[in-house]
Amino acid sequence: xxEIAEYLVKNGNIKxxxxxxxxxxxxxxxxxVKSALLNPKFLRMVSKKAAQFxxxxxxxxxxxxxVPFGVAVSLExxxxxxxxxxxxxxxxLEKMVEGDLxxxxxxxFVEDVTTTGSTILRAVTRLKEKAVRTDRVVVVVDRQxxxxxxxxxxxxxxxxxxxxxxxxxxxx
Length: 172
Hints:
The protein is an alpha/beta fold and 172 residues long. It has helices at 3-10, 33-36, 40-51, 67-77, 118-128, 147-152, 164-171, and strands spanning 14-20, 26-31, 58-62, 81-84, 97-98, 106-114, 133-142, 157-163. The strands form two sheets. Strands 5-4-3-6-7-8 form a six-stranded mixed sheet, with helices on both faces.
């Protein structure tokens, strides 16, 4: 078994029950990568693996779950980090995007889990408004429920460190 899948299984990051996913779909299992990313050994392992796939000028992450991953990949690659909010701040500078973007830059997103890709696609749209382009998304776990195809329709490559089949073969 892949070391990422092994960690997730052994540390109880695969949950069983009835869950509503961010896509709105329901599932009888949940892959809790967010809490795994709070473990420094796991975070180091996945960020080193992800770093080799970062081709953009900068790394981007959507708040909240992907931010630790984005920080670690940014440190590993020495590329600046962009954080895209899910909702506009209603106070302070009211920003949707944290970090400096320059016209024409290419961004590579990192994400904890993808299902349909809807969260990433909303973030990509926000960055398009800033005249930057997303080349790819590097995700820890792809649930294989349409994200790859939906991103490809927008010209964005999805690279998963593991997919749900890698986990299912041994635990689900």
